[in-house]
Amino acid sequence: MKKIIISAAALLVVVSLQFCSKTAVVSTDANPVVTVITAALQPNLPTTALVYVMNYPAHIQLSLNANDNTPADNVLTNDGATLGRVLFYDKQLSKNNTVACASCHKQNLSFDDNVALSVGFAGGLTSRNSMALLNTRFYKSGKMFWDERAASAEKQALQPIQNLVEMGITLAELETKVKALNYYPALFLKAFGSTAIDSVKIAKALSQFERSIVTYQAKYDRVKQGLESFTTAEAAGETLFNTAGPAPGGAPALSCQSCHSAPMFMNSAAPPFAFPDPLDAGINNQNRFKSGSLRNISTRTALFHNGRIANLQAMLTAGAPGSGTQPIPAHSVAPQDVQNILAFLATLTDNTIATEVKFSNPFQ
Length: 364
Known about the structure:
By secondary structure, the chain is mainly α. It has 2 domains: 24-214 and 353-359, Cytochrome Bc1 Complex, Chain D, domain 2 (Orthogonal Bundle), CATH 1.10.760.10; 219-351, Cytochrome c-like domain (Cytochrome Bc1 Complex, Chain D, domain 2, Orthogonal Bundle). It has helices at 2-20, 58-67, 78-89, 101-104, 153-157, 159-162, 171-179, 184-192, 199-212, 219-224, 232-242, 256-259, 312-317, 338-346; strands at residues 21-25, 34-38, 273-274, 288-289. The strands form 2 sheets. It has a two-stranded antiparallel ribbon with strand order 1-2. A two-stranded antiparallel sheet has the order 3-4. Residues 1-40 have low confidence and may be disordered.
């Protein structure tokens, strides 16, 4: 009787697997990439695409008009960003189906990570800290990564996928894996007018989604629209932020605003900041790194290219007497100013970005 029960149970499992999953081997090397597609992995999307093409408040729109790095051949559309969202969260795009772009750029962490170095598909650590993917569309040069080695988001999008630590597959494997997933043809058709799938379109869709992640609903934005007012501390902090301090060696005076220009608090025209690191020489081996957006900086941790600065307060107080720390070039402020700067920077936090459905994981 036990044998009959066991056999029946085994048959039920086999039948269930037949209808719930299929396995496709997409590589012929010694360690084939195996794609497992299950019903649970189907993305949950609305019939009508969510809205990614936005009309922003005037102060944001003016900045976008002046700095938009969107290329003419990859204009943001609702369907394109929808496809990008699915690709961004799809773990099938990694060697062993365990990580996605979103594994290192988490929505609830402002599309940042909360560790110095992120974990790749096989447990290895990335060589640099994950940059927050906020307001990338406003970085006029379009250059991506801490060392700005990618000329655009389109050039950046496929590099983590091919990275041997991060996601670990080739472009040929990527295309084969995506083609094997039954939910993609319809998404590519809506986004690009064809069910044909290739790595160029994958990069374009991912770039559209990344460019759509814009913060514009913080207290700072409500103040600039005349809907709220800064507190005394916040207003003092903004003045400090915009006021140039003395620069060493007779160099031109720089304020925080010089490199982190309002309203998105980034500026691709500013010289990348100097950050001596014996293990990483940065842009063109000049000990310089990209300056990212300060939006949501108050809630982010593991800052800078190596993630070695714990948080915003640690950055501002680095090098303070008795702290036992070294100052960070152009990033420390006088002790009496720290609380006001912190108050102002807290107004840059847009909490909606962490919960907005259109930026969330469609596989949940």
